[in-house]
UniProtKB/TrEMBL annotation:
<dbReference type="Pfam" id="PF21981">
    <property type="entry name" value="RecX_HTH3"/>
</dbReference>
<keyword id="KW-0963">Cytoplasm</keyword>
<dbReference type="GO" id="GO:0005737">
    <property type="term" value="C:cytoplasm"/>
</dbReference>
<dbReference type="GO" id="GO:0006282">
    <property type="term" value="P:regulation of DNA repair"/>
</dbReference>
<dbReference type="InterPro" id="IPR053926">
    <property type="entry name" value="RecX_HTH_1st"/>
</dbReference>
<comment type="similarity">
    <text>Belongs to the RecX family.</text>
</comment>
<dbReference type="Pfam" id="PF02631">
    <property type="entry name" value="RecX_HTH2"/>
</dbReference>
<protein>
    <recommendedName>
        <fullName>Regulatory protein RecX</fullName>
    </recommendedName>
</protein>
<dbReference type="Pfam" id="PF21982">
    <property type="entry name" value="RecX_HTH1"/>
</dbReference>
<dbReference type="InterPro" id="IPR036388">
    <property type="entry name" value="WH-like_DNA-bd_sf"/>
</dbReference>
<feature type="domain" description="RecX second three-helical">
    <location>
        <begin position="108"/>
        <end position="149"/>
    </location>
</feature>
<comment type="function">
    <text>Modulates RecA activity.</text>
</comment>
<feature type="domain" description="RecX first three-helical">
    <location>
        <begin position="64"/>
        <end position="101"/>
    </location>
</feature>
<dbReference type="InterPro" id="IPR053924">
    <property type="entry name" value="RecX_HTH_2nd"/>
</dbReference>
<dbReference type="InterPro" id="IPR003783">
    <property type="entry name" value="Regulatory_RecX"/>
</dbReference>
<feature type="domain" description="RecX third three-helical">
    <location>
        <begin position="155"/>
        <end position="201"/>
    </location>
</feature>
<feature type="domain" description="RecX third three-helical">
    <location>
        <begin position="213"/>
        <end position="259"/>
    </location>
</feature>
Amino acid sequence: MPIITKISIQKNNSERYNIFLDGEYAFSVDEEVLARFQLTKGKELSDFDIAEIDYEDDIRKGVNTAIHYLSYRMRSEKEVRDYLKQKEINEMVIQEVIHKLYNLKYLNDLEFAVAYVRTQMNTTKKGPGTIKMELHEKGISENHINQALQEYSKEQQIEHAKALLEKTIKQNKKLSEKSLKQKLDQTLLRKGFDIETIHLALDEIDFKKDESEEWDAIVEQGEKAHRKLQKYSGYEYEQRMKQTLYQKGFPMELIEKFLQEYSL
């Protein structure tokens, strides 16, 4: 069996050691692996010993890689697994690395989910549906997601929804009341709010238009439609204008009034 003839510290990493067998470099190991296998000059190593040392050293390298990855922010188990796969680490080694990370308290998917929900609800206006979808993508279980989302109170959801509604109203002043209502619903649904929250938020927001505002809106949309349809004339022009403005959410009575008063 080969014998360890020399052990030297690596120049660029003081926690790793080069192992020489029978006068030639054979492999390197982490300091912890060196101590665990009591690797010393003069010790004989069988092929099985070398294979076991190599496997344990791969695990140690995987743990160190994962801890470095986790040093930037909390990660889910799936995020760590995916990262280690990108580093082309063997699946069996990854499984052992994950096990050690849990024992060392570096991984906890429930704590991760709770922290993620708190961050999203304090720094964004996302609804719980969107946050839930993002946690699913990060590999968090349904049970952990539901527990974590308890942090996001209905009151805060409504406040976030109202803020989004107010912003959307300001950005869409020239829409008809009907189109604006549809826009508001779509915005909150897209952001991940449920129907109940949307209705509660809308009840607290004044988005209804008075006659003057609705008239300003149809004038704005009517002039835009005219620029697109001015190549038509007579009956065809009138019908296309009516269809366009009706699709924009304006009532037919207001459309008729607009066409009578504006000879575009």
